[in-house]
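Q: What would this complex look like in 3D?
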Amino acid sequence: MRARAQELLEKGEVKWVIGWEKGSLWYHSSPAFIRRPEEVERLIWDDFCANNLAKYLLDFTQLEGKVALFVKGCDSKGINRLLQDQQIEREKVYIIGITCPGVRDGRKAQGKGPEALETIPVEERCTFCTHPEPVVYDEVIDTGEKLPGRGEKEPQDRFTEVERLLALHPDERYEFWAKQYERCLRCYACRNICPACNCRECIFDRSQSGWCSKRIIKTENEFYGLTRALHVAGRCIECGECERVCPVGIPIMSLHRKIIKDLNELFGPYEAGLDTETPPPLGTYRTEDPDYFV
Amino acid sequence: MLKVKRDKLPQVLSLWSEEAVVYTPQEENGVSTFRPWTGQAELNFKPGSTVVPPKELFFPRTEEMYRYRVEGQAAFLEELPLPQEKRVLVGIRSCDARSLLLLDEVFLSKGYVDEFYRTRRENTLVVALACREPLDTCFCTSLGVDPGRAEGVDIQAWETEDGYLLEATSEGGKALLEKAGDLLTDVSEEPPAGVRPRLEVDLEGVTEKLQRMFEHPFWDDLWHKCIGCAACTFLCPTCHCFDIQSENRGNLGFKFRCWDSCMFPEYTRMAGGHNPRPTRKERVRNRILHKFQYFPERYGRLGCVGCGRCLDRCPVHMDITQIIQAIKEVALDG
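A: Here is my prediction, written as structure tokens for the whole assembly.
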């Protein structure tokens, strides 16, 4: 990785390389932005490179020249998300894919020493992984590794929690979500990390729009959560970053997966971000689309 | 020194509950926060501080300030009663105890007293619990906080093998211990020393350095990884910014204030659309300068308590200790 980053920067093929660097804790790996060849030593790859770097490309749209970035399988779907949403130009990005072994859940390493590495499980999202290999790239680095647990479950199993919630009485289900969103701080970490949340200006950054109050209370928080979930409906690439970064542990992906499950049932199976050609189910119209609700 | 056996503590809390609402750390989905104690026998004093800091007991996420109504040409204001709830806050750590002293500076000093904050603060007795085990992200001692003894609290408690040692440090604290009566026994045990966190950072001279760094290129490289969310500021026990807005329904309305964050673009957006902190670069710089330059300039002490919440919960692991270290290493001319 370092060698390729150095080469690309030295030859002037790219202006920036986005990868990961080590934080001060052994289980923290953090996005890194490299613009000088001599800085490539900062780049690392380990089992904790969870962050999807695709969203950062929005910061470089005005740059003259290219940006190189490293992407795992799920991250690469984020690139397609931004391409399909016409937020970035393909020719301004140099994509170095990594066949992803899965990433470990850093939160489960808290309080443990590096010797516990092998005992730290992969992130929950990795257990359902269908695309460890990037779906879009200019070159690929094959790690040839696979952490225990990656892809061990059937993709369908990711709806287990959704089904559990659907089986609840509506009042209990409301109670469940009310409790979750009562904790919501409205920090917008879920929105800001999300490659599908790529509006130039978000409605929630206009607190006097009249749609949603800035009051951090359950009902307004719920409105925020639902609005975001519906706004990324059919476009969510299931990278799971929103849920991973939520500082108060809201199971946001259960909301997204409910919508994905519905879309699959209504419009046929669809996985967002696999390519840029297939239009998202809610971004297109077919005469055979179900219309019982019209 | 007085001591309460572990299994007797709920009885003590129960006695305190007769005249006040007792708040203890409680967990939901792995996220701990202070909530009213409702008689749980199991008390959740896990190592480290709660994920959500206790500041919201004094400075809530959202609170109504006053109401108004309009009738024809006339407008009427309705004052809201100040919060009356008496509270005992049990189990806060030394870092959070320090944060309350810093919030006192903001809300109670320099000629303006925030009545909402003042009443809550005066109605609350604080029982601090010394740290026996730091979290990986703790760095309180770098800020001069003693994990084994908190400042400005009413009772200091230390957890031992079979119970808690208690020492009253104010009149209010003494009254609480008296109320516990026979549940406490006099013992000759010495309180255990606080355990130093592993993470340390040297803050010597950082304020003076930052005073000369506003325009330094250092900030050009720092902000890239920040995604501009408010996890750090909302979880920070000393961040205290708020917005004031109103909501109207027909001829009725109310003013409220709610937490706000300097990480948000809207925070500094002016009426005409101009934004003096247009990008994340200026916003990240502001957060660092507020903690380590503006706060000490105004109040004479650093605005960070070393609780480590920001580096624990940051979506991209922005690490304030690494940032301070990097500031120390910046070379300045002259």
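A: To summarize the key features: Residues 155-283 of chain A form one domain. Chain A has a mean pLDDT of 95.
Q: Very helpful, thank you.
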